[in-house]
Amino acid sequence: MVRVRNLSFRFGARYVLRNVSFSVGRGGFVFLTGPSGAGKTTLLRILHGALPMQGGQATVAGHELARMTKGRLPALRRDVGVVFQDFKILPRRTVRENVILPLEVRGVARPKAERRIKAVLHALKLDGLAECPCAQLAGGEQQRVAIARAVVTGPRVILADEPTGNLDWELSVRLLDVFRQFHLHGTSIIMATHNREILSAVPEAAVLRLSGGEVDPGGYDVAEAAGISGRDEA
C-alpha cells in the first residue's frame, strides 16, 4: 500500500531525508518515531503530495508520486486521509460542517454521510459538540475534529502527524482504538509520534525510527502483523 525506495529530500543544501526505504502492506500499522527534526513531518508531507519528489521512488495506494501532477493530486487525496499537526480545520464552520466536507466533495449521499458522521463523532467523544463552531473549541477538541474529518471517508491510507499531541492519555487511547478499527479492516496507517508510551497501545504495530533523516537500523522493529518491510527490494 505504501512503498518507498531510496527517498531523499533537501531544503537548499541540507538533506532532511536521505535514502529512506520501507514498505507497508495493506492493513499495516506503523509508528514513525525519531527526535525533532528527524524528518518525520517531511516524509508524511511527501507521501501526501504536499511536497514534491526530489530523489528516489514512492508509491502510495497505487499512485506513483514521482509522476504525480497537480491535476492528479485529488485522486491521491481521495485514497489518503491526513491528520495535520496544525489541524487545518475551518474555524467558522461547525464540527459537523468540517467533518461532512470531504464526504460532500466525494458526492456521498446525505443519509450515508450522516451515518458515518454520527459513528465517527461518537467514537471521538464529539457528539455534544456537533453544532459548535470550531473556533470555540479547545485545542484538543480541534485535534479530534481534524481526526474525524480524516477518517470519515474510510481512506485506504491514513497519515497522522502527532495526532495525540494535544490529547490526554484517555483520549489518546480512544483515538488509537479508532485507528485500530480502520487498521483491522484493511486501512494502512503511518502515525508519527514522539511519545513512546503510545507505542505500547498498539502492540502489533511496527516502529520505524528516523535519525538524521535516515532509517535507524537499530530502531526498525519489524512486526509481521503490521505488514511492513524495511528491505530496499520490498
Overall description:
With 234 residues, the protein is an alpha/beta fold. The chain has one domain: P-loop containing nucleotide triphosphate hydrolases (Rossmann fold, 3-Layer(aba) Sandwich). The protein is 31% helix and 25% strand. The protein contains 7 helices and 11 strands. It has helices at 40-47, 73-79, 95-105, 110-123, 139-151, 169-184, 196-199, and strands at residues 2-11, 14-24, 29-33, 55-60, 63-64, 80-83, 157-161, 188-192, 206-211, 214-215, 228-229. Strands 6-7-8-3-9-10 form a 6-stranded mixed β-sheet, with helices on both faces. A hairpin with a 2-residue loop joins strand 9 and strand 10 (214-215). The protein is globular. The N and C termini lie close together (11 Å). The model is unreliable at 221-234 (pLDDT under 50).
